[in-house]
Structures are given as structure tokens and as C-alpha cells.
Amino acid sequence: MNREQHAQRLLYDRYKDAMYTILFRMLDDEDDAADALQEAFVEVFRSLEKYRRLSSLGAWIKVIVIRAGLAQQRTKKLDFEPITDRLPEEQSLVWDENMTGEYLHAAIRQLSPGYRNVFLLIEVEGYSHKEAAGLLQITEGTSKSQLFNAKKILQQKLKKLMY
Amino acid sequence: MDHENVQILKKAINELPTHVAPERVWAGIQSEIVPEQNRGAFEKALRDYKEPVKSPVSWEKLALRTAEAGSSRKKIFSLSNTGYWLSGVAAALVIGVCVGVYLSTKNGTKYETQDMAMSPEASEEEAMRFIERFCKGGNVICTSTAFLELKAELDESTEELKEISKQLSVFQNDPTLLQAKSTIEKYRATVLKEITLMI
């Protein structure tokens, strides 16, 4: 292994599990997540010279990883919920205090990819609606309504899982 | 109340299971990236390549250089024996001259070529003298590029031989120098044969 490959391996080792986790949550399949991770890091190493330090290296890699995950979803032709710009009704979302990570994980897996993407990007990865809308190529309003719907469906799933 | 509600979700999110990337992913990345990098390195090396500039070689290093380069030097014919080729040179000259005499007699024109005939046992010195005499007549062959290149090779090897002989007188029968001398002599015989075939 030469010096460049060694440096690449160090970078990969630093981020691989965190990025694989994001992809696994998005794609809900080990092989698909592994394929997307490979594509993403090939892209990272090819484009590393273009990294301009406008964000942290991890954030820059994460965007590439998410795009690879979305591309993988498109190749799989997964069913997405129809997206509407209808704004959510004013309704409070109350989470059950007995909800654990395991229950939430199981409920997220039952979401359709469209809702799953919005929920994961905004609530789990911390992107703003604007950023998530940019990644998902939807409007900010759609992002907001989709997140609300995703949460409502999650609550229904959780109720079934927990009780 | 709202704050507590948000905290419940955050706590559950923090508890979400994490996953470990399979080891095979790295191998897949390498299989795509390494050939590209190798190709890139090769292309860079090609871009950075500069035509080597021929540097003058000191006479002190000549003997060793000749010995090392002996096998890779421009080969016109493979040689096993210097004397054999010198005989060949002489024979070629005799045939060439005889044909010349025959043709000139047939056409009714007399040329002074008979004097330039060489015996098959002609030595290297005789061959050199013959070439000199031939070219003194202002023959057009002697000004051709191919002839001049061969003549330059011959002159260069003459100088090399002189230098090696000088070194041999100092280092006696040094095997490396002797080998270099033999290589140059063989090469000279080849060049001589080429020249005589031209004229």
C-alpha cells in the first residue's frame, strides 16, 4: 500500500461506520448500503481535490454519501409516497415516553423511502428543511409537510409495535 | 411539555442502533481507485518526461562504458570473429572492383579502378587506405548521409581504440579493457564491411 492509499484508508476508517449507518437506515438493506458506501467513497477519493473547506470534511463526505444512497434508491425503483405541497394541519405530535431507540428503528424501517428520507435527514442527521429539500430535490414546503406526515405515520407504527 | 416531548424523540434517536461497514467495501473501493491512480501516475510521469541530453563521456570512463554497452551497441551484423569479417570486407572489395573493371571495359571506357583492388587477406589498415583512396576521387557516395554516419562511427571507434590501447599500456592485461577492445574491434569490422558494400 503506497502513501496515498494509506491516507485513503485512514480517512475511510474514520468515517466508514457512521456513513454506512446512514446508508443502512436509508436503504434498509446490507448489500445496497455497502454498494452505496463503495460508490460514495470512490467519489470522495476522486473529488477530494475539489473539497474547498466550506464545511467540515465529515459534512462534505456525508452529502456525497446521502446522494449515493438516494441514487441507490432510484436504481431500486423503491416506492415513494406521492409528494404534495399540502401544508400539515395544526396538530400536536406527542411521543410516548416509553419509546426507545429499538422501537423507533423498527418503526422507521416500516416507513416508505420518501418519508424515511425526510425524517432521517431532518430529525436524525440534523439538516434544515432547506438543506434536505436541496438534497431530495423537493421544495421546502414539501419537506415540511412530508416530515409531519412521516412523524404521524411513525406514531401509528410505534403504537402497534409497543402495545 | 413541548420540550419534554422533543427530548423523548431525541433520546430515542440517540439510541438508534449503529452499523459496521462490511470489510469487502474497502476492497471494492480499491479495485476502482487504484487503477485510476496508477494510470494517473503514469500519465504524470509521461508529462514530466524530458528528452535525455547526451552528455560528453570522459575518456577515463570510456573503457568501462564500451564494455558495458558492447552488447547493446548498434548491431549491423552479429560477429564472432574479427578476422572473418575483415576477409569478407576484402572479398567484397575484390568482387566490386572486378565487376567495375568488366563493366568499364565493356563500355569502352577505362577507369583507374584496377589499382584499388584488395586481396582477400587485406588487413584493416589496407581496407582503410582503400576507402581513403576511393573517396579522394570525389565519389558521390562518400558525401552521402549513410556513408558519413558510418565514417563518423569508424573515426569514433578509432579514437576509442587508441584510448583503450593507452590504458592497456598502463593497466597491462586488464580483462575489462581487453574485452572492451575486442568489442570495438568487432564493431569496426562491421562498419568497414558496411562501407565497402556501399562503395
From TrEMBL, chain A:
<dbReference type="InterPro" id="IPR013324">
    <property type="entry name" value="RNA_pol_sigma_r3/r4-like"/>
</dbReference>
<dbReference type="GO" id="GO:0003677">
    <property type="term" value="F:DNA binding"/>
</dbReference>
<dbReference type="GO" id="GO:0016987">
    <property type="term" value="F:sigma factor activity"/>
</dbReference>
<feature type="domain" description="RNA polymerase sigma-70 region 2">
    <location>
        <begin position="11"/>
        <end position="71"/>
    </location>
</feature>
<dbReference type="InterPro" id="IPR039425">
    <property type="entry name" value="RNA_pol_sigma-70-like"/>
</dbReference>
<feature type="domain" description="RNA polymerase sigma factor 70 region 4 type 2">
    <location>
        <begin position="102"/>
        <end position="153"/>
    </location>
</feature>
<dbReference type="InterPro" id="IPR036388">
    <property type="entry name" value="WH-like_DNA-bd_sf"/>
</dbReference>
<keyword id="KW-0805">Transcription regulation</keyword>
<dbReference type="GO" id="GO:0006352">
    <property type="term" value="P:DNA-templated transcription initiation"/>
</dbReference>
<keyword id="KW-0731">Sigma factor</keyword>
<protein>
    <submittedName>
        <fullName>RNA polymerase sigma factor</fullName>
    </submittedName>
</protein>
<dbReference type="Pfam" id="PF04542">
    <property type="entry name" value="Sigma70_r2"/>
</dbReference>
<dbReference type="Pfam" id="PF08281">
    <property type="entry name" value="Sigma70_r4_2"/>
</dbReference>
<dbReference type="InterPro" id="IPR007627">
    <property type="entry name" value="RNA_pol_sigma70_r2"/>
</dbReference>
<dbReference type="InterPro" id="IPR013249">
    <property type="entry name" value="RNA_pol_sigma70_r4_t2"/>
</dbReference>
<keyword id="KW-0804">Transcription</keyword>
<dbReference type="InterPro" id="IPR013325">
    <property type="entry name" value="RNA_pol_sigma_r2"/>
</dbReference>
<comment type="similarity">
    <text>Belongs to the sigma-70 factor family. ECF subfamily.</text>
</comment>
<dbReference type="InterPro" id="IPR014284">
    <property type="entry name" value="RNA_pol_sigma-70_dom"/>
</dbReference>
Automatic annotation (TrEMBL), chain B:
<feature type="transmembrane region" description="Helical">
    <location>
        <begin position="83"/>
        <end position="103"/>
    </location>
</feature>
<keyword id="KW-1133">Transmembrane helix</keyword>
<keyword id="KW-0812">Transmembrane</keyword>
<feature type="coiled-coil region">
    <location>
        <begin position="147"/>
        <end position="174"/>
    </location>
</feature>
<protein>
    <submittedName>
        <fullName>Uncharacterized protein</fullName>
    </submittedName>
</protein>
<keyword id="KW-0472">Membrane</keyword>
<keyword id="KW-0175">Coiled coil</keyword>
